[in-house]
Amino acid sequence: MAGDRASSGRRGSDMVKNLISSAQALGADTLDLSRRQLTTIPDELFHLQHLEYLYLEGNYLSELPDYFFTYLPNLKWLDLRRNRLKHLPVTVGSHRCLRTLLLEGNELTSLPLELGHVTTLRGLNLRDNPLHVPPPAVMEQGTIVILHHLREAMETRKRQDAMAKGVLIEQLTLEDSDSCNQSEDGNQSSEPELRDLGSDKVFPSRESSVSKTGLARHMQMGPTPMPAALHKPASYSELRQQQYDKFRRAGLLGEAKKGRRKKQRPTSPLMIDLLDAKRAEERRLAALRELKEKQALIEQRRKWVKSLLKPF
Fold first, then answer.
1. What is the pLDDT of residue 161?
2. What is the spatial distance between Cα 146 and Cα 131, in angstroms, rounded to a whole number?
3. Which of 19, 98, 167, 196 has the fewest CB atoms lying closer than 10 Å?
4. How far is CA 28 from CA 19, 25, 48, 51, 55, in A?
């Protein structure tokens, strides 16, 4: 039994290598390795850097190499459904071609925040995964909202990291300042060390003036909230007003007659709608007249032919 499994595994591996070799020889942009009992990605696959459509559904993959998306830069469609993936490599954030990513039926608990930088992504299938990042309320709103949430989480993490580094630097500065002040006050334990270093004076640093109260206040500050108005889409009236302004600047709203000019009231967006409707109705009536004329001409020609065929 074990021997049969080993031979079957070797045959499957040989079949996968043959498929990859054929795709490389033909320059094919599509490769289907679905249900091939793969536990790892074959190294030969990364020779197909022109690959655009890759199907790996129904295998036993538990992880992808960190260089997976780097060595396959032209991928547009990646099917990883029904595997055992627990995470995605963060290098996915540097991909600039991926449009569809199918991850249904894996063991993902979180998505890498870097995925939010894949601005070409339009299709993302995440069903049947124990995900908690992003939260279910975000996932219900679709791919665009998920990517936006991941980008915001990335920016928040960067701000928090930068703030933590700043606080750590200030703490180290305060500790250095305290040690310097103790040396100036005649602390006997630190004086020999200063003499060994060949220094008899202590110069307090610039940051020593920062108070611990200000430091505590700085630590309590969180990331700066972004107002929702920044992401508010333009309303219909605003779009119509923009169109009206564009027409007015282009001089498409009519010109005054030469000589004595009359003061004209500006055309409102509503009037623009009425003018558009009037022009559309005129075009419809003109087309209807043309159709009737063609029908009359056809009828006249039919009668003429019938009269010619009528026996005398």
1. 82
2. 12
3. 196
4. 11, 8, 9, 7, 13
Q: What percent of the chain has pLDDT over 90?
A: 38
What tens digit of pLDDT does each residue of 14-70 get?
899 999 999 888 888 999 999 999 999 999 999 999 999 999 999 999 999 999 999
